[in-house]
Design a protein that fits this description.
Helix content: 40-55%
Distance between the termini: 59 Å
Number of domains: 3
Order of helices and strands: HEHHEHEHEHEHHHHHHHHH
Shape: elongated
CATH class of the largest domain: Alpha Beta
Largest sheet: 5 strands, parallel
Strand content: 5-15%
Number of strands: 5
Radius of gyration: 23 Å
CATH superfamily of the largest domain: P-loop containing nucleotide triphosphate hydrolases
Number of helices: 15
């Protein structure tokens, strides 16, 4: 059974307690807040033959088949490989499933995640099933980036905004999820995960705090001219390119924020506060805006899985970063 997260309790009561369900739901919100788990709980409830207290019973034939991964009226559509698109042929197989009669005599339930992984042909192939699903079929679409979806997909679904937990809720949950981390480490991970607690757990497993420390140390050495962009590009070969661009984007935002507000409480995580403040004081605002535009542009390419030369991209980033101070 999918985990029930405390910050989802109110939404779950509203969603699970409906007398009649929509034919398609779009569950959307930031990555790492438990949308997939909520969709799986709803899928189990909708398929259960003896639901009780807004939960699947876990004991009926339908529940046992679902847990075993062999429920004939359940279909999960996701990329065949991580970070790859959902292809049109996969959606055509799904459409074939939707047109069939439910084998256990109840509902058919489809889960698609992440919906934005569908390419344009795959998305178009899904439209008719979304508009007129045959029989008693419910489609559960999960999206981390709903802005990337076709308007025609969104308009055919009942949209459910999944809540991001409050910081206190996330930290309380992380206390049991990451018992080997201390309070400060959990707070840092949550900050690096942009407030998404499940993402914080993923980042810890990926060793992101160690990678971040390596990058921060490298940036400081770069600004002191103790290491070159090419040396750092080589040293950072194990660091996620997306994490790199997320951090540099965040730092450029913090520099601009400090230039505008002079608020020393808004300098971000402790590891880069002095550097951010120094760069904000030494760099013209126009130069910061220029590099921020470039970083955002490159970040979109990284997100779009563009065929990039990693070493050259990092070198270009660091070469421009090294030129920030002292250009007034």
């Amino acid at each position: 059974m999918a985990e029930a997260y405390p910050w989802q309790a109110t939404l779950w009561q509203q969603l699970a307690g409906r007398a009649r369900h929509a034919h398609a739901y779009l569950l959307h919100g930031p990555q790492g807040i438990g949308k997939r788990a909520m969709a799986e709980r709803l899928m189990a409830l909708l398929l259960c033959q003896r639901p009780e207290a807004l939960q699947a019973c876990g004991q009926c034939k339908s529940c046992l088949l679902l847990v075993a991964g062999s429920h004939p009226d359940n279909y999960v559509l996701e990329p065949e490989e991580a970070d790859k698109p959902i292809k049109v042929d996969q959606v055509r197989d799904l459409v074939g499933f939707v047109t069939q009669t439910a084998q256990l005599g109840g509902r058919k339930v489809v889960l698609i995640e992440p919906v934005e992984a569908m390419n344009i042909n795959a998305a178009n192939a899904l439209l008719k099933s979304l508009e007129e699903p045959s029989g008693d079929t419910v489609l559960l679409l999960v999206s981390h980036q709903p802005s990337r979806l076709l308007p025609t997909i969104k308009s055919r679904c009942q949209q459910i905004a999944c809540p991001q937990p409050l910081e206190a809720q996330s930290l309380a949950w992380l206390t049991s999820a990451l018992p080997d981390c201390d309070e400060q480490e959990r707070a840092e991970l949550l900050s690096l995960a942009a407030g998404s607690p499940l993402m914080a757990v993923t980042l810890q497993a990926q060793g992101v705090r160690e990678h971040r420390a390596q990058v921060v140390d490298g940036v400081k050495k770069l600004l002191k001219q103790q290491q070159s962009p090419s040396q750092l590009a080589e040293a950072w070969k194990d660091v996620s390119l997306l994490h790199l661009f997320d951090w540099f984007c965040d730092w450029s935002n913090l520099i601009l924020r400090y230039q505008l507000t002079q608020d020393e409480q808004g300098l971000g995580l402790a590891d880069m506060r002095k550097v951010v403040q120094y760069l904000a004081q030494k760099t013209p605002q126009g130069k910061v805006l220029e590099i921020q535009d470039w970083i955002l542009d490159q970040r979109q390419k990284v997100l779009g899985k563009a065929n990039l030369n990693r070493a050259l991209l990092i070198e270009a980033l660091l070469a421009s970063w090294a030129l920030l101070p002292g250009q007034r």
